[in-house]
Amino acid sequence: MKETFSTSSQTLMALLPSCFDPRSGYCNKSKTFHSLRAAVPLPPLSVPLSFPAFAFSLLPSPLPSHPALLDAFTGKTISYPDFISSVRSLAANLQHHAAISKGDVAFILLPTGIDVPILYLALLSLGVVLSPANPASTPSEIARLVNLSKSSLAFATSFTAHKLPDNLPTILLDSLQFQSFLRSDQNSNASTSVEIFQSDIAVIQYSSGTTGRIKAAALPHRAFIAMSAGFHALRPGRLEVTLLCAPLFHSFGFFFILKSLALGESTVLPSLRMNRITGILEVVERHKVTLLMVPPPLVVAMTKLEVMKYDLDALEMVMCGGAPLSIAAAKRFYKRFAQVLLAQGYGSTEGGGISRMIGPEECNRLKSAGRLVENAQVKIVDPNTGKALSVGQTGELWLKSPACMTGYIGDDEANAAAFDSDGWLRTGDLCYIDEDGFVYVVDRLKELIKYKAYQVPPAELEHVLHSHPEVVDAAVMPIPHEEVGQIPAALVVRREGSTLSETEVIDYVAKQVAPYKKIRRVLFVNRIPKSPSGKILRRELANHMLCSSVSRL
């Protein structure tokens, strides 16, 4: 497919405005920030192209001899020739036996497993829209998602299928029938030729479940082509062995398994039965993992291991995404693993990858989320006035990128709020970009605490709390107050055996922030409710506070 790359990187760079500042990426004339990465040419939108076709076109010939996928629990591996053969066989058999066709929506309720990426690529090659969901969801939650996505069939296992609506046709991955579909002799003469355009929807991913009503974000094949092309342009010159510790139904894990397969890497998939951080590090040692992809809670767990008994000499980078990582945790990481790069990034379900770190110099910017990814444009907009801001000024980040969603399914109101009239995606994130082009995420716009006339970012206070040596985890939330509107309250998980008091926490924070940002109430809890990617489930924080007496406030 290389012939479709009709525009050179040099030509694309020449298209940047003359006012472009090569240090920050800011254009004073258009009030926009441009990526400092070399532009990556993409196939013309008019060219019919599915993500699987694009991914397979990137693989070398002959195909790599190393495993494409490896199951850390069973030890089972799949080579690249077998992977591609299984994808094509499964697509043909599903098309022939299950009457699946382009535009159908497949609801996917599966734990991480070696057959899941095969299913993803097979369905995408048929033009079927994927709708992955968390297997831990309740039947009522799943019924809402099925209705929202208009799914016409489902893929599950014998352990998750009971949660699906009774009238939804379901194929079980742990059935003999499905396993037979992976073999070419089942229906070798079937044709899977389907014309798929890059603008066709590839996946429906669910967003905003932690802060509001759930919305179904539709992402096209183009989004995953663009993001994978960016990684391909910067691929290392040696084999990357990745341990992907992110759920494959989550946008973070979903994209990175697709990207790893497109780049010909070896991807190790963990088992849910593994003993969290100790089991993960055993796998890193056993399979000589070079890239470990984990959510922030696992990075924190790595820094707090009392004894390091694992050989991690092959490990070159830990990539952390899905939620913010505190500065204190990043510093502890480098103190413990001095030879390993800690790369953070920033993205969203709706906007895809927005920024990330590359190389030692960028990874040392601990407070940042790296620089804008290739082909991205950003505005920083004052949420009150709508004025576009400049370098170093904090406002809502607006995005234009080939990785953006096309919109929310069946939600005109949400789409009107998400996009402006010129097609800029409002991320809802308060950010600023410094003079060197590094992106800093301050907080979610909707999560700001309004104390009197001041805005207090919970994430800033959470970073301060995480820096306390006796605090294992923390979250900050607003509590209504008659006189001042809202006051910041903290839920704190203490280190085992700690006698840290509420007064000590309040005083610790007060010494490091402006008076209006001070914590006014502390509740000690056993855990902070979080999503699988490590994001704080802020709607659930209120339940903790309600369970404790806050009437004295």
From TrEMBL:
PROSITE patterns documented for this protein: AMP_BINDING
One function term, GO molecular function aspect: ATP binding
Transmembrane spans: none
UniProt xrefs under PANTHER family: 4-COUMARATE--COA LIGASE-LIKE 7 (PTHR24096:SF377), LONG-CHAIN-FATTY-ACID--COA LIGASE (PTHR24096)
Listed name of the protein: 4-coumarate--CoA ligase
Alphabetized UniProt keyword annotations: ATP-binding, Ligase, Nucleotide-binding
AMP-dependent synthetase/ligase domain sequence ranges: 64-408
